[in-house]
Design goal:
Helix content is about 55%, strand content about 15%. It is of the alpha+beta class. Strands 6-7-11-9-8 form a five-stranded mixed barrel. A two-stranded antiparallel ribbon has the order 1-2. A two-stranded antiparallel ribbon has the order 3-4.
């Protein structure tokens, strides 16, 4: 007798898989294994419930808030209903709630500038902040830009600001009180200048009272209603070019509570990061405070930019993780032609192609965060390493995120193209990373600048060479990695020579792929993860070494021919 029940009633698993509601930390076993490797046990135990809480939020409520805010972008109000000029960016309540979670509850912007956060006594290492950001950004990307700029502004203020300015303003950047904490921004881009800071036209001059006043237009200002912004301007009478550019701290409100003398001309209609306002600013004699040494504005602003670039790399890694996890879930749950998608060879290959760049970026987040901690802790040898790792991850991970999010969308099929799902938002947001804080060409050239000026290449070779020495890898695989590092370094050395700029992107990619493969292999050896070693082999095979497109892909047999690798393969 045949059943008359409807297909819907008899279907135990809905044919359209929906991962919404999963804990993005608890379901990420690879992240948990890496944290056990990179964080001290006591700190990891303390942070575990916070990681789990944010993972639960990101997989459900925060994701809902992000979707709502994306569908309801901010608007600009110029006057009150009674006709009083009172510029305000009107944010949707969903975005405001995300601000509260990020800035107040989890302290993502203040964490590096406090002696206690989330119940942890003492300075929190950068890695914890970046892991929390990595989880948060899997739900909401746009807000993470103001979070990063706020963190970076406080860092630059502490590093270059006078003692009086630090004492006066830093407490608001350390605060977790949502009603009093300050948000930051950087107003750097101009219509004519773009990445060419030497072409900055905004003027700075002292008034009769000795106060600095800024005049000019800034073309792209994210978080335009921030409480404070770092601004580049040319001091009246100073020389043309980069040496005439100085750095200023611009408050939104003056001491008497009135608005400072600048206007938000309009808000931008952007492809992505729709939840977060970006606008155009006209400075009309705005009062500001000189930061650091006059005429060294870009050198000082570069510290803020580099910190933001690292955050950009972290966010790209988070986007790729979310995209990959969604694709993997769909492939495991969706059935077609009588099989699970994940059991089909072509889908397995497609998922691997998504995982490799996502795992590379995750590994490079850990490596760069540790270098930052060492450098900020006074280890002078760590700075050259940090100086090159930062543009490397910003350059390559941000470019990879554009492709990974797009290809992951395809796994969901037609639903992936529908705005009800997260896929379109991930794709739109992913394109930001390789544009803001320096386009790909600019950042690749910065990698080469680090090679030329900071002795970063020997530092990179020494660090990743040491990782390779520590890993118990198959001799043939270790030799292949060591040879790739030498060749990538030689290519970067060629790019640093006269006329070598044309291969800057090629050299930067070679360094990133080789270094990430080495670090991933080391992680795999130390954690006993055969999967991570296989991913490292995949990076070397598909993203570094030459290959014949007319032959099947195979891993050289010798890469697994030793006792250690045989043991790992069965782990």
């Amino acid at each position: 007798m045949t059943s008359t029940a409807s297909p819907t009633a008899d279907t135990a698993v809905h044919p359209v898989p929906d991962r919404h509601g999963q804990n993005l930390y608890a379901t990420d076993g690879e992240l948990q294994r890496l944290l056990a490797l990179y964080l001290p046990p006591e700190l990891l135990r303390h942070m575990q419930p916070h990681f789990e809480r944010l993972g639960a939020l990101a997989g459900g409520p925060l994701d809902e808030l992000a979707h709502t805010a994306d569908c309801n972008p901010p608007t600009l109000s110029l006057r009150t209903r009674t006709g009083i000029d009172d510029q305000r960016v009107i944010k949707h309540p969903a975005y405001v709630e995300m601000e509260r979670l990020a800035l107040s509850e989890f302290g993502l912007a203040a964490m590096s500038h406090r002696d206690e956060t989330l119940g942890w006594k003492g300075k929190m290492p950068p890695l914890v902040k970046y892991v929390l950001t990595y989880l948060f950004v899997q739900a909401e990307f746009g807000l993470c830009c103001p979070v990063s700029m706020t963190d970076s502004l406080a860092r630059t203020l502490k590093k270059f600001g006078s003692q009086a300015l630090v004492q006066r303003f830093l407490p608001r950047f350390q605060s977790l009180d949502f009603d009093t904490l300050a948000q930051g921004a950087m107003f750097m881009t101009e219509q004519a200048a773009g990445s060419d800071i030497a072409a900055t036209l905004t003027q700075a001059a002292k008034d009769a009272d000795g106060q600095w006043r800024l005049s000019g237009d800034k073309w792209f200002c994210s978080n335009p209603d921030a409480d404070f912004a770092m601004v580049l301007a040319r001091v009246e009478g100073d020389p043309a070019g980069m040496k005439g550019v100085s750095l200023f701290l611009l408050p939104r409100e003056l001491d008497d509570g009135t608005h400072n003398h600048y206007r938000i001309i309009r808000l931008k209609d952007k492809l992505g990061t729709r939840s977060m306002a970006s606008g155009e600013i006209r400075l009309e004699g705005a009062i500001a405070y000189l930061i650091g040494e006059q005429g060294r504005g870009f050198v000082q602003m570069a510290d803020m930019v580099n910190n933001s670039r690292l955050s950009n790399g972290v966010r790209a890694a988070g986007l790729m993780r979310r995209a990959c996890a969604e694709a993997e879930y769909i492939a495991d749950e969706r059935r077609a032609f009588g099989k699970r998608l994940s059991d089909m060879p072509l889908m397995q290959k497609q998922l691997t192609k998504l995982r490799l760049p996502a795992e590379q970026a995750r590994t490079m987040v850990f490596q760069t965060a540790l270098a930052l901690a060492r450098s900020d802790g006074g280890d002078a040898s760590a700075y050259p390493l940090l100086r090159i790792l930062t543009p490397l991850i910003k350059f390559r991970a941000c470019r990879d995120a554009r492709k990974v999010t797009g290809d992951a969308m395809e796994v969901r099929g037609g639903c992936g193209y529908i705005e009800e799902w997260a896929d379109p938002r991930l794709v739109r947001d992913a394109h930001l990373g390789s544009i803001w804080e320096g386009t790909s060409n600019i950042v690749a050239l910065d990698v080469i600048r680090a090679v030329k000026r900071e002795a970063s290449l020997p530092a990179l070779q020494a660090h990743f060479g040491a990782l390779l020495d520590e890993a118990a890898l198959a001799p043939a695989f270790a030799t292949a990695l060591r040879d790739a590092l030498a060749r990538a370094s030689a290519l970067a050395g060629t790019a640093a020579q006269e006329g070598g700029d044309v291969i800057a992107r090629q050299a930067a990619s070679a360094l990133y792929h080789t270094c990430s493969a080495i670090a991933m292999a080391c992680e795999g050896a130390r954690t006993g993860s055969a999967q991570r070693i296989e991913w490292a082999q995949g990076v070397l095979l598909h993203r570094v070494l030459p290959r014949d497109p007319l032959t099947p892909d195979t891993v050289p047999a010798g890469w697994n021919a030793n006792t250690a690798s045989s043991t790992l393969a069965t782990a």
